[in-house]
Amino acid sequence: MTGSGFHVQLDHDRDAWVVRCGGELDGNAALHLSDAIELCLNAKPASVLMDCRDVTFVDSGGLWALLRAVREAHERDVSYRIELSDQIQDVLERAGLLQRLLAGPEAIAAAPR
Q1: Given this model, what pLDDT does residue 2 score?
Q2: Which of 6, 8, 18, 31 is the most exposed place for a label (fewest CB within 10 A)?
């Protein structure tokens, strides 16, 4: 799946899924990422690793998609882990969201909707 310089790839081995993405994670790309996450979670995996180490740009739409993915995984009782690029870490830190995202699904689920 692609959009505006963005790519996302789903891989799985039994019930462990990996979502790899890279490029520019903007509002349009966030829709592609959300679709990929939905496809992944509909398979009812035991765990999901979101690998965002190759993301070069992220805006508010992209951040929303990442935070929503954590919440969705938590609501479906799926173990979730995320690996972030320096770009995403920097933006999340400036937005005051880095610790919440790294704290795990419980912190995201507790946040106001």
Answers
A1: 46
A2: 31
From residue 43, alpha-carbon distances to 6, 13, 16, 58, 73 in Å are 23, 12, 10, 27, 12
User: Over the stretch 60-91, which tens digit does the pLDDT of each residue have?
Assistant: 999 999 999 999 998 999 999 999 999 899 99
Residue 112 lies in a domain: no
Total length of the chain: 113
d(CA 31, CA 25): 10
Asked, for residue 98, whether it belongs to a domain, the answer is yes
Measured CA to CA, the distance from residue 84 to residue 90 in angstroms comes to 10
- Is 20 in contact with 8 (CB distance < 8 Å)? yes
